[in-house]
UniProtKB/TrEMBL annotation:
The keyword Transport does not apply. The lineage of its organism: Eukaryota, Metazoa, Chordata, Craniata, Vertebrata. Belongs to the CCDC90 family. Residues 78-105 form a coiled coil. It comes from the Eukaryota. One of its GO terms (cellular component) is mitochondrial inner membrane. The gene is Mcur1. This is MCUR1 regulator.
């Protein structure tokens, strides 16, 4: 392992500051052991460049597999959605045709019913007109009969009146003759 500081320079520095050579070497040796232990702990948690590249390749192949699966799933979902959409379009067209047929049927039924009602109303009006005409004829006949009866009664009354007047005149002439 490389050490990123000069151990001999540290020993010399310690000797300059009052440590003996043996003490300085022991301190530097302890520092090297501590650093190596720390580096071992750090290296345990770290990966090497090769391990990192292998992990990256594994991740990339996994991503590519997921991408393929997604594309296949998307295509199958898309085709399933497309076929479902076509089914719904066909059902919608059938329903539209059925609705249009029903509308046409209802329209024809309504037109037929309307024409039947018109003919019934016309027949009813014709019957009413005939009844009214018959009633008018009956009234006219009755009025004519009443006029005829009135005229005959008038004539009878005139006859009776004339007869009464002549009778009174005859009686008056008879009395007049008798008195004269």
């Amino acid at each position: 392992r490389r050490l990123y500081f000069d151990t001999h320079a540290l020993v010399c520095l310690l000797e300059e500051n009052g440590f003996t050579t043996q003490q300085s070497e022991v301190i530097v040796s302890a520092l090297v052991k501590i650093m190596n232990t720390n580096l071992d702990m750090i290296y345990k948690d770290m990966v090497t460049k090769v391990q990192q590249e292998i992990a990256l390749q594994q991740v990339m192949s996994h991503i590519a597999g997921v991408k393929k699966d997604m594309i296949i799933l998307e295509k199958s979902e898309f085709s399933a959605l497309r076929s479902e959409n076509e089914k719904i379009k066909l059902e919608l067209q059938q329903m539209k045709k059925q609705v249009m047929d029903e509308i046409t049927k209802v329209h024809a039924d309504n037109k037929l019913n309307l024409n039947l009602e018109k003919s019934r109303v016309k027949e009813l009006h014709a019957q009413q007109d005939r009844a009214l005409t018959q009633t008018d004829r009956k009234i006219d006949t009755e009025v004519a009969d009443l006029k005829t009866m009135l005229e005959s009664h008038k004539l009878d009354n005139i006859k009776y009146l004339a007869g009464s007047v002549f009778t009174c005149l005859t009686v008056a002439l008879g009395f007049y003759r008798l008195w004269i």
